């Protein structure tokens, strides 16, 4: 466990990372040290120095060679299950420095102070750098969140990766998706279970490096198909 100061609520950060050697030190360095118990970087098969740099910055590095965003998140959760302590809150954060880790308290506070179970950092209502969210990502968010509202009755404005959730509630969701559908699966299952969900505005900037999803036409198409498939699939499960 990394030597970070622990508050009354034990918060663990999970950072899926694939070839993020240019950004991972900045991500870890901006995380408020008095807020977290452990930072877990899941190296999802990087071919660069991501793992070494993350370890040098004090993070716990979990190696997960099976590719996929959801697969990396599941590996992080499995690491926590096998830890010697039980956290209260899990924060998910990307490793490309597009999110602002310093805003983490804004996501955690609604959980610790207002009794929410899941808090989504919304990039669409927050301040974002021009060009940080590509048109295909904005359109995908628009369609997906409106379908969630239509079918599941909960309003979201984003499927953003920067989010906080109660650990016991996360386990109750029995997350399964191993690729692009991870975030939408979490939000749909939370809605179906009646968890208390909210959003807070978060800042967003252009990532360091290239997006593994929306940075290519193929990636954008595959992500869109998977998200829509997940929304409809959950209607019958």
Description:
The protein is an alpha/beta fold. It is built from eight helices and seven strands, in the order E-H-E-H-E-H-E-H-E-H-E-H-H-E-H. It has one domain (11-236): Spore Coat Polysaccharide Biosynthesis Protein SpsA, Chain A (Alpha-Beta Complex), CATH 3.90.550. The chain has a seven-stranded mixed sheet with strand order 3-2-1-4-6-5-7, sandwiched between helices. Helix 5 packs parallel to helix 8.
Q: What coarse outline follows from CA principal-axis ratios?
A: globular
Figure out the total of helices: 8
Query: Would you state the CATH class?
Result: Alpha Beta
The main sheet comes to: 7 strands, mixed
End-to-end Cα distance, whole Å, is 37 Å
Percent of residues in beta strands? 5-15%
CATH topology: Spore Coat Polysaccharide Biosynthesis Protein SpsA, Chain A
Query: How many strands in all?
Result: 7
Helix content percent band: 25-40%
- Assigned CATH architecture: Alpha-Beta Complex
The tally of structural domains comes to 1
Radius of gyration: 16 Å
Mean pLDDT over the residues: 92
Low-pLDDT windows of residues: 1-6
Order of strands, main sheet, comes to 3-2-1-4-6-5-7
SSE class: alpha/beta
Could you spell the SSE succession in H and E letters?
Answer: EHEHEHEHEHEHHEH
Summarize the structure in short.
With 237 residues, this protein is α/β, with parallel strands linked by helices. The protein is 38% helix and 15% strand. Helix 5 packs parallel to helix 8 (217-233).
Core attributes:
15% strand; 237 residues; seven-stranded mixed beta sheet; 8 helices; alpha/beta; 7 strands; Spore Coat Polysaccharide Biosynthesis Protein SpsA, Chain A
């Amino acid at each position: 466990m990394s030597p970070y100061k622990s508050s009354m609520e034990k918060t663990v950060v999970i950072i899926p990372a694939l070839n993020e050697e240019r950004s991972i030190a900045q991500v870890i360095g901006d995380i408020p040290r008095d807020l977290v118990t452990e930072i877990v970087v899941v190296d999802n098969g990087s071919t660069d120095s991501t793992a070494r740099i993350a370890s040098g910055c004090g993070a716990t590095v979990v190696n997960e060679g099976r590719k996929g965003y959801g697969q990396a998140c599941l590996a992080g959760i499995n690491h926590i299950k096998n830890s010697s302590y039980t956290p209260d809150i899990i924060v998910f954060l990307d490793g490309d420095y597009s999110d602002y880790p310093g805003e983490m308290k804004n996501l955690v506070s609604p959980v610790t102070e207002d009794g929410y179970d899941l808090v989504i950092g919304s990039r669409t209502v927050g301040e974002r750098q021009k060009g940080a969210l590509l048109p295909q990502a904005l359109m995908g968010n628009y369609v997906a969140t409106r379908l969630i509202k239509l079918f599941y009755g909960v309003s979201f404005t984003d499927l953003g990766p920067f989010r906080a959730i109660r650990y016991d509630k996360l386990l109750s969701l029995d997350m399964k998706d191993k690729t692009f559908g991870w975030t939408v699966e979490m939000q749909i299952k939370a809605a179906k279970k009646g968890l208390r969900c909210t959003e807070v505005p978060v800042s967003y900037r252009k990532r360091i490096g290239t997006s593994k999803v929306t940075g290519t036409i193929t990636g954008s198409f595959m992500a869109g198909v998977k998200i829509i498939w997940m929304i409809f699939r959950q209607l019958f499960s």
